[in-house]
Specification:
mainly alpha; 79 residues
Length: 79
C-alpha cells in the first residue's frame, strides 16, 4: 500500500497542477473521500472490536479500507 499511496499522491499532484475543471473536481473528491474513508475505517474497526478480534486484526480491518481506496484511486488516476 505504501508505494500505491505515493503513486496516488504523485498522480493527484500532477492533475491538480494542470489546473482547470479536472483539478477542481479532484480536490473536492480528495477531501470528501478522506472523510468517507475515515468513517468507513471506524465502522470496520468497531465491528472487528465488537466481534472480539485481536488488536492486530482490528488494525488490519481498518487499514484494509484505506488500501482498497488507494488501489481504486491509483487505477482511476492512471487512465
Amino acid at each position: 500500500m505504501c508505494w500505491e499511496a505515493q503513486t496516488v499522491m504523485l498522480l493527484r499532484g500532477l492533475r491538480i497542477a494542470q489546473g482547470g475543471a479536472k483539478a477542481e473536481v479532484e480536490v473536492q473528491r480528495m477531501i470528501t473521500e478522506k472523510v468517507a474513508a475515515l468513517a468507513e475505517a471506524q465502522v470496520a474497526a468497531t465491528m472487528a472490536t465488537l466481534k472480539g478480534s485481536k488488536k492486530h486484526r482490528v488494525a488490519k480491518k481498518a487499514l484494509g479500507v484505506y488500501a482498497g481506496r488507494v488501489r481504486r484511486n491509483r487505477r482511476r488516476l492512471s487512465k
